[in-house]
Design goal:
Number of domains: 2
Bound molecules: flavin mononucleotide, iron/sulfur cluster
Shape: globular
Strand order of the largest sheet: 3-2-5-7-8
CATH topology of the largest domain: Rossmann fold
CATH class of the largest domain: Alpha Beta
CATH superfamily of the largest domain: Flavodoxin domain
Number of helices: 10
Helix content: 25-40%
Largest sheet: 5 strands, parallel
Number of strands: 12
């Protein structure tokens, strides 16, 4: 694919997609979903010298979601962009995204010229409670709009972005990132049978194709590991999917813009 500015994004529950769409509206460019590219084996892109390339995605366990790491590892970019940046959405801490993104891009011969963060609702509901939607929307989603506008301007001016106070040193952050493989084990998932209508949405939306439907129209996990993105849990129309013991009381959340993208 050739084009002007490229905005690669991954989003499980809509926060990062909303940010990517706002950046596109502000500065132009082509939105490219990293999960779809991985599934379809689309890795080749080309850019002109005057172009910028952005990566917009959520922080997972203080580092990169596997989908982002895998996409960058597979990326074949023809041409050298004038400006390469990352924008990460996060709930509490950006962890060591700067370190991991720089390293991943470095292996592809690319630099990281700017990094920015936008604080949004934390959708890791094995730990965080999103059941009070008004609170979530007021506290983070609405406040995020001003941050997104600022980041769009910084990107337009090819700024470096200042180090955020929630960024952590590699030695500390890697301890948390080591927990990610365990969290990715699909044995943590369960389905509340009498809530599930067998619509198959979870299987269709899973970015790693870890879910399939059985002959009784019930989802099952056909892979032992997935990205742990919780897209299935948060998008299920009947909140039938659970992860571990605590998600049942912590509610579901998708960014308000997701309804227009469904
Ligand atoms: C598996 C997983 C791990 C997460 N880890 C972190 C984290 O380490 N730090 C943080 O601030 N937020 C963390 N979050 C919250 C997300 O980064 C945040 O909600 C993000 O905006 C979700 O983006 P999306 O809606 O585009 O998928 C995590 C969420 C998930 C699903
Ligand atoms: S999205 Fe929910 S209701 Fe639909 S098949 Fe999956 S678990 Fe069942
Ligand atoms: S099974 Fe659920 S959590 Fe795992 S990758 Fe698929 S949608 Fe994401």
């Amino acid at each position: 694919m050739t084009g002007n500015n490229l905005i690669f994004y991954f989003s499980a529950t809509g926060n990062s997609r909303h940010v990517a769409q706002c950046l596109q509206m502000a500065n132009g460019g082509i939105l490219v979903p990293m999960d779809t590219c991985l599934l379809e084996g689309q890795h080749k892109f080309s850019v002109d010298e005057a172009c910028s390339v952005g990566f917009v995605f959520p922080v997972y366990f203080w580092g990169l979601p596997t989908i982002v790491a895998d996409f960058i590892a597979a990326l074949q970019l023809d041409g050298t962009p004038q400006y390469t940046y990352g924008v990460t959405t996060y709930g509490t801490s950006m962890g060591e995204v700067r370190h991991q993104l720089r390293k991943a891009l470095g292996l592809k011969g690319m630099g990281l010229d700017g990094l920015f963060g936008v604080r949004m609702v934390d959708v890791w509901t094995p730990m965080f409670d999103v059941s009070d939607h008004d609170k979530c929307l007021k506290r983070t989603t609405q406040k995020a709009e001003a941050q997104i506008d600022k980041v769009a301007l910084q990107i337009e001016h090819h700024e470096v972005g200042s180090r955020h106070w929630t960024e952590l040193p590699h030695l500390l952050a890697q301890l948390e990132y080591r927990l990610y493989p365990k969290a990715r084990q699909t044995r943590h998932f369960s389905v509340i049978d009498d809530r599930c209508t067998g619509c198959g949405l979870c299987a269709r939306k899973c970015p790693t194709k870890a879910i399939a439907m059985n002959s009784h129209k019930r989802p099952f996990w056909q892979k032992s590991e997935c990205a742990a993105c919780l897209r299935c849990l948060h998008h299920c129309p009947h909140f039938a999917i659970q992860y571990g013991k605590h998600t049942a009381t912590h509610g579901q959340f998708v960014h308000p813009s997701e309804i227009y993208n469904a």
